[in-house]
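Late entry, written up from scratch paper. The run itself happened at the end of the previous shift, but nothing got recorded in the book at the time, so transcribing now.
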Amino acid sequence: HKIDKKVLSRLFGWGMGDGGINKDNPRYYFICGKKEDLKNIKRYLKTNIKNINPIILKNNSGGEIKGTNNKVRIIIGKEDTHILYIRNSTFTRLLYGMGLPKGRKVLQRFSLPNWIKFGSREVKKEFLDSIFECEGEKSTLQKFKTKIGLKSPIFSLNKKVEYKENLISFLKEI
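Output as recorded:
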């Protein structure tokens, strides 16, 4: 695959946000999100990367999460959540080789690859655009009886407590 670094950088932002490489089946790159957002991403991918076939499926997943107090919570997937898959082992090996982690990012250490960190302004912009697309919340205007307020934009990533220092380090890198 010959892929422009700006396109790769955008893929990394999505992959480090709401997507990634499936650990159990590393032939899959995926992004989770709302169907309309994923349709836009699919158009972008088909325009910018030859010979891949992204598909969008409904995400019916859920699972159990063990909290710090060892209580188990059942998580049910949101109704409007879908997954965009790219099944291509050459493509996922390329992404992994360039620094995209496999598996659940909340359970492992990783850092921003140097080719993004020290890349061109455009490479950095593409990464930031796509990770904020996944992990950011837009500001909102709140109207009150006698005044208005602007709620600040929010950016959030999660890690298990034992990876707190890695999370702080990653946030400083970006």
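The radius of gyration is 17 Å.
(Scratch paper discarded after transcription.)
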